[in-house]
Amino acid sequence: MTDTSGLGKILLRGLAQRGYVVGQNLTYLARSSMGDNTRIPELLRELKASGVDAIVVVGFPSALAAKSLGVPIIGALGLGDPVETRLIDSLAHPGGNITGISDVASALTTKRLSLLKELSPNLRKVAMLWNKDDLGMTLRYGASAKVALSLGISVQPVGVRERDDFKDAFELMNSDMPDAILMVADALTNLNRKRVFEFAIAMKLPAIYEYDFIVRDGGLMSYGPDLTESFERTAALVARVFEGAKPADLPFEQPTRYPFFLNLKTAGSMGLQIPPTMLALADEVIE
């Protein structure tokens, strides 16, 4: 998340609004494991050695590795359920050195599946694609699968651990074709999202994703937290830490805005007709 990336710019703008400006009284250092979780501890040690006052992390593996670092940690995105994964004691009183933004997987899954059902009324089986090596996302998958089953939708579990596993994942779906795909987002699946797009388009499978940037990049549709809001609120939490607050005393926050994005160009390439009711529901339609 560099200072020139979209989310980096939102974070830095939010900090500037609170009086922390790069080049004046703020130094910003960015590190990325590029989906290789084995590199995360080393990158975090580099940041700690540089004397940072706080670290913003994305994803459960980064948050877990940072838990014992002794530096205030603010999780902006992708932490899953931080209580269930034992990152924190409770949402209201995190304890330890981690606070941030969380969301409720079961409620979001219900909405995502209802959108898939509206697009494909005969939906019976959904493939759920997720990173099996990410505990946060594995628990998110489990919560999502329970919701699907409660709605009478069977689940095809498609777990991956590395880039090469996507070929096997596509072969699995080819051998037992689902009616739709739900991709659980983390660094690994996000980095390989275009391969998922290509497969879904070739097989004419409706697919729903968790974040709007995936739809802007060619995915069919997404329903999830507003990333602008999430990173603005992350900036507010960082500012509070700078001012002396301890993450242990800062309650985890939940997003309030969950936009629905549709990509009509992708729908057209799949021969999908989007119902007018879905178009009316969309917060943004990409043409």
UniProtKB/TrEMBL annotation:
Which InterPro entries does the record match to this protein?
ABC_transpt-TYRBP-like
Question: Pfam families given for it?
Answer: ABC_sub_bind
Protein name stated in the entry: ABC transporter substrate-binding protein
What lineage does UniProt assign to this protein's organism? Bacteria, Pseudomonadati, Pseudomonadota, Alphaproteobacteria, Hyphomicrobiales
